User: Fold these one by one.
Assistant:
Number 1:
Amino acid sequence: MSEPELYKAIGGKKLEKYIAYLPGVGEAMDSHVFEAKARADAELVEHRFQGHARVFTKKAKLDRYLVLDDSRGLDAAMSIEFGRKESRDPETGEVLITEMEGLFILHKAMGLARPDKRRGKVDVDPDVVKEKWRRR
């Protein structure tokens, strides 16, 4: 079967969109994301440092999202999920940001495998972190 045949439209819609609008699909997605949020909340509580990060769900027309948000804290959601590298002051060599392993909260909650370790941890700009701490 050639690729164009595989993605033929059904009733004027692509196959994925057709399936998304079938009865019960939205409710199943809501249920799946609700359960994943409960798992993510439990995981986040175990690792809470200052308590600013939170997990919430967002519902679009067809899609459902599970979101890790740290906008109330240091905007560190990406570091919480994937980890971060150590960052030192280039002049003094002082450690400004300690290295941290990622918690992969969303990955675990959704039953996904961790990303390839070759991808690496997030590089954090020390100046951005200093500015966040100043504003607190």
Number 2:
Amino acid sequence: MADNKSKTMSTEEAGRKGGEATARNHDKEFYEEIGQKGGEATAKNHDKEFYQEIGQKGGEATAKNHDKEFYQEIGQKGGEATAKNHDKDFYQDIGQKGGEATAENHDKEFYQRIGEKGGEATSKNHDKEFYQEIGEKGGEARSRQNND
């Protein structure tokens, strides 16, 4: 008599096999459609706090698995993709919003510290001529501003 226990599949194995079969039988559009439907259903059933919590958990998990270069690479790709889709006004708008949000959360000492760090980093990457050039440009801009 055959032993039925040896033919029994674990839930994990059954899920894997089902997933493989589905992947063989469906294309990218199928997955986009079910992803869209799933996202809409989830949005109906959950609030902002839910998304903040899962975003936090996902960010923590990602941080454990990736290094600085990973974030530099995805930041570069994201910046390039965003630049293709947005104009100068978009960047001015988000810059203003970011500046306002930051100003609400930080004091004068914070800005002094980040200014100092930025100055130190910049000085490591540029020479005297760089500073002469930007000083000249700043002076010309100020002059034009005063003449208006």
